[in-house]
Amino acid sequence: MPDQAFDGAFEAAGAAPGDGAAPAVRIEGLWKRFGRQIAVNGIGLELPAGRFIGLVGPNGAGKTTTLSMITGLLRPDQGRIQVAGHDVWADPESVARVKARIGILPEGLRLFERLSGRELLAYSGRLRGLPGAEVDKRAAQLLDVLDLTGSQNKLVVDYSTGMRKKIGLAAALLHNPEVLFLDEPFEGVDPVSAQTIRGVLERYTASGATVVFSSHVMELVESLCDWVAVMAAGSIRAQGTLAEVRGDAPSLQAAFLELVGANGRAAAGDSLDWLGGSGASGGAGASGGAGGTGTPGGAGVSGGAQ
Q1: What is the pLDDT, as a whole number, of residue 85?
Q2: I need a labelling partner for 148 at 20 to 30 A (CA). Which of 31, 213, 283, 285 fits?
Q3: Predicted confidence band at 292 (pLDDT cuts at 50, 70, 90)?
Q4: SS (H, E, C) the chain
Q5: What is the pTM of this model?
């Protein structure tokens, strides 16, 4: 992975990401309802700048809804959100200002599939208002670092899942955002692509930028993040450094299960006494019985054939 090419992709955008002591994200009293369902339950959250942050929780915890409100994609019912010191929902102009400072790789990313990878980056950069020559330079560097140079002229519709994630990440990084939001960035990605994405993100945060990514894979979060917020049923159950959230638990997974109240579900499969060994034995017995009945006949047929 060429270090100079990668570093150049982020140095050209003026002030270094993450400058200043203000938190990357500050949330106060955030609510979101869908009909009678409360998706986000009045949460408060403060995410420090310049860190690799994991927003973790079980399926349906409200992670994607929260990220959508933070990034200006979904209007909250109530509450205040600040990103990089700017109020997201104060007025229409404020949403635009925030979006200019962030990068987003959402879950179920939709791309312009009839463009090639190179064309997609060229379009994204110019849409951001970057000069054409600078867009082309950064696009070439990102394609190289993300191992997409050989596929840059291939239509996105023909990209694999891992390639789509990587070209989406490239588009999110192209304008050198202060804060990068990723929703399940490693889901469905092969190990080689995952390692490439991981290397890019680690270098990006080392430069002083902030990464916020959601996941329900605790081992991944524990290996990548230095700051964690745990979410369940629309509420924040814990937030802080990895060590603070893990506490005395042997792993983040153990602490997570305790925080979301899932410890009692570890033996949930015990009630399925028909599944596995006992069920297989019954099936084997039936099969054996059939085999025992039919074997002599089968042997006779075989003998006749001989």
Answers
A1: 87
A2: 213
A3: low
A4: CCHHHHHHHHHCCCCCCCCCCCCCEEEEEEEEEECCEEEEEEEEEEECCCCEEEEECCCCCCHHHHHHHHCCCCCCCEEEEEECCEECCCCHHHHHHHHHHEEEECCCCCCCCCCEHHHHHHHHHHHCCCCHHHHHHHHHHHHHHCCCHHHCCCEHHHCCHHHHHHHHHHHHHCCCCCEEEEECCCCCCCHHHHHHHHHHHHHHHHCCCEEEEEECCHHHHHHHCCEEEEEECCEEEEEEEHHHHHCCCCCHHHHHHHHCCCHHHCCHHHHCCCCCHHHHHHHHHHHHHHHHHHHHHHHHHHHHHC
A5: 0.79
Record the tokens describing residue 168, joined without a space: 């989406």
* Burial label, 41 (beta-carbon count in 10 A; 0-12, 13-18, 19+): middle
Give CA angle at 278 (274, 282), nearest 5°: 95
Tokens linked to 150: 């050989």
What sign results for the dihedral spanned by CA atoms 253, 254, 259, 265? positive
